[in-house]
Write a structure and sequence with these properties.
Helix content is 35%, strand content 21%. Helix 1 packs across helix 11 and helix 7 packs antiparallel against helix 8. The two termini are 37 Å apart.
């Protein structure tokens, strides 16, 4: 969808203003807090949303858009990192395999691990398939001598079946996610009653940020009324963005929750990699899956930042009012098309945990009330920590 006139800049300012209202009302550190929007940022009915948020690699912005389909995953980047490293003592195995060492590294990097597989069992299979019997026996013996190496253990832990938890999607198809300490039970226990009033007015909002720049934070979801429409619906987006917008109501439950990867993550190997920049005894030249810069360099490294804490909302009722003038036809079009949410509650899915009610007021303004019942959880933000973290 095109970005007519100055709508994108207006929405970036709206995001900055909303960021400052939320961080101020909830007492959050504006130097590390990142406001979350999108499907994952808005909701979770079980641990899946929490795990996905914790596993996301946060963008370098004050407002991050989080969606299950497009979010870079920390667990995937960490898996590549392990495959980019050499185990301590690998020189012996390299000498034994000679020219075949590069073939082994390529094989294990591309291998699709199955339940019960270990690094040692995969090496045995490879050696018996690609080496003659005498070479295979000697290579397997050498490999067993380094099998207790921390990198080998880290790879086995990462590929273990117990590293992930299974969930079911809307069509009852199973899928698995890497586990984090911040489960739904922990999240519910973290919620406290706060009854904090929220008052936002685009005419008086503060758009100055103390965190990273808001530039780009609206990319991909700048529409005030989302839903993938075009044409005349674009004009409604522009009208809403260009008019005064107010938000009033109350947040009734709030909590913070630290979230960390569990047994599948080896902090020792992670730190060995981080502290080993340009060290060819640590980084594998054969793996071709990344180097120190691709993993750790700011701002684009796949492990350059991490989520260390989630900011949780447990109950609220907030009314967003666009003070533009809307006709009955506009109202019908908006209620029919705005399935993706009304700013600032963007969502790439209609399966939201909150309810949304539309009202065309007597003065032709439009009010949308968002309500989250007690017992449900939404993630409104995260603490972002730079590597090594």
């Amino acid at each position: 969808m095109t970005d007519p006139s100055n709508t994108r800049k207006i929405v970036e300012d709206l995001n900055a203003g909303w960021y400052n209202v939320i961080s101020g009302a909830m007492g959050l550190d504006p130097t590390t807090f990142q406001l979350a929007q999108g499907t994952l940022g808005l909701q979770t009915s079980d641990s899946s949303g929490l795990f996905l948020m914790a596993d996301a690699v946060p963008p370098p912005s004050s407002v991050g858009y989080y969606d299950a389909g497009g979010t870079s995953k920390r667990s995937s980047a960490y898996g590549l990192l392990l495959n980019a490293l050499q185990p301590e003592g690998s020189a012996t195995l390299r000498t034994e395999l000679g020219n075949m060492y590069a073939k082994w590294v390529t094989y294990k990097t591309n291998y699709d691990f199955k339940p019960g597989d270990t690094q040692e069992s995969v090496f045995d299979t490879w050696a018996n398939q690609y080496l003659n019997p005498g070479q295979a026996a000697k290579a397997i013996t050498v490999y067993k001598q380094v099998a207790n190496n921390q990198l080998i253990k880290a790879l086995d832990a990462y590929n273990s079946k117990s590293a992930q938890q299974q969930f079911m999607d809307a069509a009852d198809n199973p899928y698995s996610l890497y586990k984090y300490s911040g489960s739904s039970d922990v999240a519910l226990a973290a919620l406290k009653d706060v009854n904090t009033p929220i008052n936002f007015d685009s005419k008086t909002m503060d758009t100055k940020l103390k965190h990273t720049t808001v530039e780009g934070s609206a990319s991909g979801f700048w529409d005030i009324f989302s839903g993938g429409a075009s044409g005349s619906f674009d004009q409604l987006n522009t009208k809403a963005a260009s008019s005064q917008i107010t938000i009033s109501g109350e947040i009734n439950q709030f909590g913070t929750m630290t979230t960390n990867p569990v047994e599948w993550f080896n902090s020792g190997e992670y730190m060995r990699a981080y502290n080993g920049k340009d060290n060819n005894e640590i980084w594998s030249t054969e793996a071709n899956v990344g180097n120190w810069d691709s993993f750790f360099a700011q701002p684009k490294g796949s492990l350059a930042r991490k989520v260390s804490q989630l900011f949780l909302i447990g109950q609220y009722s907030l009314t967003v009012t666009s003070h533009a003038s809307y006709s009955q036809e506009d109202y019908k079009k908006i209620t029919a098309k705005a399935s993706g949410g009304i700013w600032p509650f963007f969502s790439a899915s209609v399966s939201t945990t909150h309810t949304t009610d539309y009202k065309l007021n007597s003065d032709s303004t439009l009010s949308v009330t968002h309500s989250l019942p007690r017992g449900q959880i939404q993630v409104w933000g995260v603490t972002v920590v730079d590597a090594p973290g």
